[in-house]
Amino acid sequence: MFSDQITIIFQLLFAMFLGIVVGADREIVGKEAGVKTYSLVAVGSTMFTILSMNPIFPDNGRIISQIIVGIGFIGAGLIIFHQNKVHGLTTAAALWVMAAIGVAIGMEYYFLAAFGTAIIIIVLFGFRVLKLEERIHKINRP
Question: What are phi and psi of 33, to 5 degrees?
């Protein structure tokens, strides 16, 4: 029983850490959601997943699916259409995938969570630094 509690503490701290890593990137660029938001999404989805693994819940997939829906609702609130441009879509998508990271941690898929976080950082940071989106837009708009 005590080792289960240690595992849960590790899971929550790991989720918080990965949320901080992704949130720090978003914070650096001055986006709406930062360290606190990403950490809370990761920790919350981890907690709900851990709770769903309790034998008293006959259908743990139902709770996990509701995490996806709930984060979708939060993400929808971040997306703004202003002056023929969509803003906040990347932030919403990153929060959504951060919830998946939390679910992976809650299910004890630690490598998957760490590798998924690395992919998120590569996409967010790499695309920004290499200016890949700008290059793609230039190709599409002669």
Answer: -105, 135
